[in-house]
Amino acid sequence: MTGAKRKKKSMLWSKMHTPHCEDFKQWCRRRLPILEWAPQYNLRENLVPDTMSGIMLAVQQVTQGLAFAILSSVHPVFGLYGSLFPAIIYAIFGMGRHVATGTFALTSLISANAVERLVPLSSQNLTTQSNTSIVGLSDFEMQRIGVAAAVSFLGGVIQVAMFVLQLGSATFLLTEPVISAMTTGAATHVVTSQVKYLLGMKMPYISGPLGFFYIYAYVFENIKSVRLEALLLSLLSIVVLVLVKELNEQFKRKIKVVLPVDLVLIIAASFACYCTNMEITYGLEVVGHIPKGIPPPRAPPMNVLSAVITEAFGVALVGYVASLALAQGSAKKYKYSVDDNQEFLAHGLSNVIPSFFFCIPSAAAMGRTAGLYSTGAKTQVACLISCVLVLIVIYAIGPLLYWLPMCVLASIIVVGLKGMLIQFRDLKKYWNVDKIDWGIWVSTYVFTICFAANVGLLFGVVCTIAIVIGRFPRAKTLSIKNMKEMEFKVKTETDGETLQQVKIISINNPLVFLNAKKFHADLMNIIQKENANNQLLDDISKCEQNTLLNSLSNGNCNEEASQPCPSEKCFLILDCSGVTFFDYSGVSMLVEVYMDCKNRSVEISLAHCTASLIKAMKYCGNPDSENPVSFESVSAALSNICSNKNLSKLSDHSEV
């Protein structure tokens, strides 16, 4: 007995734990997408294009990392770290095959607000200038990267929390006009932030509401301080970049290798600056010292988390929205799917884990994603290859970037934002399709440049919700089906008189508090219009009948014949297949409609009702417990009406 019992227990134990093991494997594959695509990676077909794409992406990662670190008000070397660690994390957890995560202009701009507020430039003289820190930088620079890393950490925690709460399903609120306007406005902010480098001007940090306009006001007030050498070098760099990139785009099918113009420009500008000593001779600002190697990890300062909550939310929302739009565009183009909620986890971890390695907030960038498209990347292997090259730059080539002029770096950033800036062309599309979407785009853009990207995004979402709430109650809730289309479905033999008295109405929208009253009004209008038409037909038929009777009785009016006949009961079938969801107000209104129609001698039948709708109607007050109200289909409801009509006729004959 003991052996049998042990055998049963072992069988039960295996049954209980085998499904859990399988569930765990499925969970790992779902949460670690690299386990899905890595075993199926085709070396022959994908390695060469991924390698070429990885080389080009590494150039973009290095240049953008340096520039966006300066945009984030931290030392340029931290931008190199931000181009390495987030890309590795996203390659493991992310689902976008052509999404290149790393430093991002919008998140850098947001984190700069926290850095400048908590560690302003004026406090540089108050801190010790010793280079005894773990990366050989001053304590002032370490304090600044500490704040930026705290923003990245808290922003990532917020994104992971949104993943746990399954808020990825709420991304339907982020419409295309809102995302387009927000990213275009944020790109305009980034271009504005680079103006001081393009012109070679010394400018204090300006932010806050209307800071966009204050920057240009400062530029025009101090126009005499513009360095002509920096302006000419910026213009030359922009012309070369735009021209070569346009040629690469036009002839990419004919040439196998795309010219890495960013890399060529960096090498040429750095070499020219070194040979001519532009830093001293012309006063051009250069990148400066880049330390070698990667420091050991260290937790971001937790004592500043409460002070950077606003920036952390901005980083979490703006970074996720911009990255998700690129991931969805990539999935749509290459015919695969992206889990919105999984992207929350991927980007959250891409911010949390790298924050321990002195990284600024990260997200996907349109320029890098477009570069992966143009170079023919196949998988995230391209991003991993770029990480290897970035690592080489950090350990070997970094110090050689000392002589890179800041105006050249700013030119590379401005040209890289071309994809976002040309979204102004979408205005024509929105104007022709929907004037309201055009208005949302313009207003979101204005709010973004006047305040910030997160404020513009919030305004766009609220504006979209408000317009939907305003338009939804006025939308058409009902449509009348043609009776002739339904006649062939009814196999019961009926007379034409019965068919004419049946009205089939389809409910087009969900029944909720927004449109419940509109549904009631629309239905009552249809019934009243139908009653008016029937009354007119009855009056005509009665007039003809009275005329015939008068002629037969030689002008003597038959009083009984002239009496109005009782109006025949009308039948109404509501097709509820369009009621995809409902609330208490909607169901209550449906029950109220039933009672109103019953008082008007209109018999209502419901077709295609879900079980939940029938159950809800019982709780709100069962319309009729004796006679069936809901049917599986319109045909079944018609058959029921016709059979009842035939039964009533038989009963009339039997009474006679």
UniProtKB/TrEMBL annotation:
Gene3D superfamilies the record matches: STAS domain
Start and end residues of each STAS domain: 492-641
Keywords of this entry: Anion exchange, Cell membrane, Endosome, Ion transport, Membrane, Transmembrane, Transmembrane helix, Transport
Catalysed transformations (reactions): nitrate(in) = nitrate(out); hydrogencarbonate(in) + chloride(out) = hydrogencarbonate(out) + chloride(in); iodide(out) = iodide(in); oxalate(in) = oxalate(out)
Gene Ontology biological-process annotations: iodide transport
Gene Ontology cellular component list: apical plasma membrane; basolateral plasma membrane; lateral plasma membrane; recycling endosome membrane
Compartment(s): Apical cell membrane; Basolateral cell membrane; Lateral cell membrane; Recycling endosome membrane
Domain of life: Eukaryota
Membrane-crossing segments per the record: 66-93, 145-165, 203-220, 226-245, 257-284, 304-327, 348-367, 379-397, 402-424, 444-469
Membrane topology listed for this record: Multi-pass membrane protein
UniProt family annotation: Belongs to the SLC26A/SulP transporter (TC 2.A.53) family.
Protein's recorded name: Anion exchange transporter
Source organism: Panthera tigris altaica
Higher taxonomy: Eukaryota, Metazoa, Chordata, Craniata, Vertebrata
Annotated gene: SLC26A7
